[in-house]
Structure formats: structure tokens, C-alpha cells
Specification:
Blueprint (H helix, E strand, L loop, with lengths): L8 H10 L2 E5 L2 H9 L5 E7 L7 H15 L3 E7 L2 H4 L14 H8 L2 H5 L13 E4 L1 H4 L4 H8 L4 H5 L2 H8 L6 H17 L3 E5 L3 H15 L4 E5 L26 H9 L6 H8 L4 H13 L4 H17 L1 H16 L8 E4 L4 E3 H8 L5 H9 L3 E3 L2 E2 L6 E3 L4 E5 L3 E6 L1
């Protein structure tokens, strides 16, 4: 984890207000004033435990949270173990399946390990507080819920763009989905926070919390909205936990490096800004070089991949991943170290073998990969999820450009 000891308080605050920030409510100026006042603020970010893996988009927020902690503020890592069971409809055209508490508990098991490279969870002088919103949301009764709901109108809830789309497309909106913003909003009240951090896709929910904080606590709450990792040309998210796309924190150094090298050229500046510790001055130079065609984008991506992998796996693993990437993709050789999986069947459908290999996280992701031509067996492309593969000992499965698995009997 990078130390900020060589930066003074004012420099840290200015970087907090500038880097990876999409919007600050009520204003950046008011937050600057609060941060310079010397008052110890209470800041939190919540993440629903809807999957076992966090991605680089989540990590951006924890990098910022660590900067708040280093400034002496009280930070809270909130795990949405209750709200995950409702399911946030954000960016969904259809209702999300509800999870059991057992599902949620399983998902969160590795989270703390995944974020530990970017936030000091073991610091005793100013410790990070780990909280679970089941502790208070499960205690609300029906009267409490009616009281919370009375602060908002149906029209306000329907303003969410995903609900508008569903209405236009005559798709169902379930009543329990209206409860999600209320529950997330109540988190702010229960923890009595000064600041909530969130991505732009959570702005509506955070503003519900701001309203409840005003009405129930008679106090202001800042909403600190961070950038989403979005391709500036296509408008598509670079990282999506729900879709299983992007760079995940629990991936190997080689997989992480390869996925970063596969990023579109136009994504380079934002990934440097939001996912590394490279200075903003240097990133501006990188952006100018990229726009002016002064440097090969592959050279910049090599630097980008190294900087990010170094954070999560260390310098030695980053260097090893870089050498392995060049050997495989420049020199067209197979990786020296491939994971091996053992299967008992003599024949398997491509979809089932890809899922069994562990290189994809779901059948949906496996199907998309195959249909896009991203699966090969011993160098031959597989074009159908239903294609039957003879499972010979030592065959090499390739998923995408950079993931290889050896199948053994």
C-alpha cells in the first residue's frame, strides 16, 4: 500500500477532491471547508455482497477511503449483507434474483483479503470499522418501514432511469425493489455518517440517504460520487460484477496482467487515474502522448498493467507476469505455468468444460465467450456451446487471449 506521508494535509485534500471524483454534493467547496476545519468526519462506502469477487472499480473507492483514513477521519467498510438480499435494480432491465443470507455470507468471505493491498485494515491507531447492515435493517419493523417510506413519493422512485425503461418496455417492477433505496438510505442514519462514498450508479440511493439524514437527524450528509470505469468511446462499463466482466481482485497476476493488456486504448488514461498511484501530472503527460500519437499504446498498457498488478501481487509477480505475457503473445508460445484441472469424463460439451475449468464465473459468461469466438482447444476455435469435446489427457483450453488451462484425466 502506497504511503502518503510525503504529502502534506492540503495536498492530500486537493487530491481527494480532484482525483477519480465525478461529483460532490452539496458542493466540493463545502467539503473542502469541512476537511480543512480539523473536524474528524465519519465516511463510509457500502458494497452489496452479490458475488465472491470485487473488481478494480470497487478498489478505486477503497483507495480513496484509505486517503480519508490517513487524514485521521473515521472510515467504515460497510458490507451490504441485508440489502444484497433485496437486490439493487441499478442498471438492470429485469428484477435481480434475491439471495439467501447463506449466499451472502459465502460471497463476503474473501472480500477483506482482496482489498487489503489498498486499505490498511490492520491499522490500530485509526482502525477501519467493518460493519454489516443486517445488524440494523433486520430490526426494523413494519411501522418503521412505513415511517421511512412516508418521506418519499412513488413519482420520486419512478424517476430512476431503469424503472422508466421497464415501464416503457412493459416489464414488471416489483414492490420490494422500491424498498432498496430506503434500506440503503437508512444505512446513513443508522451509522450517523458525515459522508457517503458511491459510484454514479448509486447516486439516487445516496440522495435518499441524504434526505433521511436531514429529516431524521436534522443534519447534512455529503455525497462523494466517484468515477465509474467507462469506455469513453462506447459508453460501456469496463467492470461489471453482475456481468462477470472486467479485472477482478482475486485473479492471478498473469490473468490480471493479460486482461489489462486487452483493454481498449482509449481506456488507458482513466485506468491510470482511478486504479494506480501514478501522479496526476504524469498521467496528464501520458494522455497528451496518447492523443498526439507520440507513443505506441501498447507501451503505455505495459506500464499500466505492471503498476496495477504490482499493487495486488507485488513487484516480483508483476515482473514475472510481464515476461510471461511477452513470451505467450509476442513469441506465440504456451504459458510455462498453467493451472491444471482434472475431469473424469471422456467427452464434455464446450460450455460445461469451460465452466469446469474455472476460468469463467458463470454459464452465461461461458456462453458469451464461446459465441464471440473466445474458446480454443489446442489452438482450434470452438464455435458452439454445444460442441462436444473429446477430453484427452493434457489438452490445452484457451479462454480469450490470455487464459490457459491444461485438462488432465
Amino acid at each position: 500500500m502506497k504511503s502518503s506521508k510525503n504529502q502534506n494535509k492540503e495536498e492530500l485534500i486537493e487530491e481527494l477532491l480532484e482525483r477519480s471524483v465525478a461529483e460532490i454534493l452539496p458542493s466540493k467547496e463545502k467539503l473542502r471547508e469541512a476537511l480543512l476545519s480539523g473536524k474528524k468526519l465519519k465516511i463510509y462506502i457500502g458494497t452489496d455482497a452479490t458475488g465472491i469477487s470485487l473488481h478494480l472499480g470497487h478498489a478505486t473507492n477503497y483507495m480513496i477511503l484509505e486517503k480519508f483514513r490517513q487524514l485521521g477521519h473515521k472510515v467504515i467498510f460497510l458490507i451490504g449483507d441485508f440489502t444484497a438480499r433485496i437486490g439493487d435494480p441499478t442498471d438492470k432491465e429485469a428484477v435481480r434474483s434475491q439471495l439467501t443470507r447463506k449466499d451472502v455470507k459465502k460471497n463476503v468471505e474473501t472480500w477483506l483479503k482482496q482489498v487489503s493491498p489498498v486499505i490498511d485494515l490492520k491499522n490500530r491507531a485509526n482502525p477501519v470499522k467493518i460493519a454489516y447492515n443486517h445488524d440494523w435493517l433486520s430490526k426494523l419493523n413494519f411501522e418503521d418501514l412505513i415511517g421511512l417510506a412516508s418521506n418519499f413519493t412513488v413519482q420520486q422512485m419512478l424517476e430512476r432511469d431503469m424503472f422508466e425503461r421497464r415501464l416503457l418496455e412493459e416489464k414488471p417492477i416489483y414492490l420490494h425493489e422500491f424498498f432498496y433505496p430506503l434500506m440503503q438510505g437508512y444505512d446513513s442514519v443508522a451509522m450517523d455518517v458525515d459522508i457517503e462514498m458511491c459510484g454514479n450508479d448509486q447516486k439516487f440511493n445516496a440522495l435518499v440517504g441524504r434526505t433521511l439524514q436531514r429529516k431524521l437527524k436534522n443534519r447534512e450528509k455529503f455525497v462523494f460520487i466517484t468515477d465509474l470505469l467507462v469506455n469513453p468511446v462506447t459508453g460501456e462499463k469496463m467492470m461489471s460484477k453482475s456481468l462477470g466482466t472486467g479485472v477482478f481482485l482475486d485473479e492471478s497476476a498473469a490473468d490480471m496482467y493479460g486482461k489489462l493488456m486487452a483493454q481498449a486504448d482509449e481506456n488507458i488514461p482513466q485506468l491510470f487515474t482511478d486504479c494506480t498511484y501514478v501522479s496526476l501530472d504524469e498521467i496528464r503527460k501520458i494522455e497528451e502522448e496518447l492523443k498526439g500519437g507520440e507513443v505506441n499504446p501498447r507501451v503505455l498498457k505495459t506500464r499500466l498493467a505492471y503498476e496495477i498488478v504490482k499493487i495486488y501481487h507485488g513487484e516480483q509477480e508483476a515482473e514475472k507476469a510481464a515476461l510471461e505475457f511477452d513470451r505467450v503473445f509476442r513469441d506465440k508460445e504456451l504459458p510455462q505455468d498453467m493451472n491444471e484441472i482434472s475431469v473424469g469424463e471422456d467427452e464434455m460439451k464446450a460450455l460445461d468444460l469451460l465452466v469446469a475449468s474455472g476460468v469463467v464465473k458463470s454459464k452465461g459468461e461461458a456462453r458469451r465467450l464461446i459465441e464471440q469466438g473466445g474458446m480454443k482447444i489446442d489452438g482450434e476455435k470452438i464455435d458452439s456451446p454445444e460442441h462436444v469435446i473429446a477430453v484427452g489427457n493434457g489438452i490445452v483450453l484457451q479462454a480469450g487471449k490470455h487464459r490457459f488451462v491444461k485438462i488432465v484425466k
